[in-house]
Amino acid sequence: MRAAFTLREAKDHEQQPLLEATLAATAMHPERKRSLDGMALGLQARKDKKGRSLSPLPSAADESEAARHHAELERQKQQARQWEEARKKREAEERIKRQEEMEKKKKSQAESGPQAALNKIIEPVFNKLW
């Protein structure tokens, strides 16, 4: 609530970076509500772009530092994607395990019910007499 109020009261040039970072983060992972990492990366990238535009000609050291920083950002994004995929895989495995446990529980309840006891007693007698 406080953030919404602050954003509403902010000037347009103050709102624009946050808006772009939010859109970039939701585009990266639309199903995730926890997109703060993406917003932070977007804001860092925007800050770096502004810092680079002030220098007239980038030197070789600046270019290598920028490339290193870009590679680090890409590595962080890739790691976040891998963590998200691993989390989804774990959740799917847990869901399957819970379903199997529920089926086993239902099956064991069906086998121990009064109908199962009746079948255990009557079926052997029926087979012998038949």
Note down, in words, how this protein is organized.
There is one protein chain. The protein is mainly α and 130 residues long. It is 86% helix and 0% strand. Helix 3 (36-54) runs antiparallel to helix 4 (60-111). The mean pLDDT is 78.
Give the tags:
mainly alpha; single chain; 130 residues; 5 helices
Number of strands: 0
The biggest beta sheet reads: none
Query: Radius of gyration over alpha carbons?
Result: 30 Å
Residue share in β-strands: under 5%
Mean pLDDT: 78
Q: What characteristic shape results from the CA principal axes?
A: elongated
Order of SSEs = HHHHH
Distance between the termini: 78 Å
Number of helices: 5
Class from secondary-structure proportions: mainly alpha
Instruction: Give the helix level as a range of percent.
Output: over 70%
Q: Which ranges are low-confidence, i.e. pLDDT below 50, for 5 or more consecutive residues?
A: none
List the helices and strands and how they pair.
Blueprint: H1 2-9, H2 12-28, H3 36-54, H4 60-111, H5 114-129
Helix pairs in contact: 2-3, 3-4
Q: What can be said about this structure in brief?
A:
With 130 residues, the protein is mostly helical. 86% of the residues lie in helices and 0% in strands. Helix 3 packs antiparallel against helix 4.
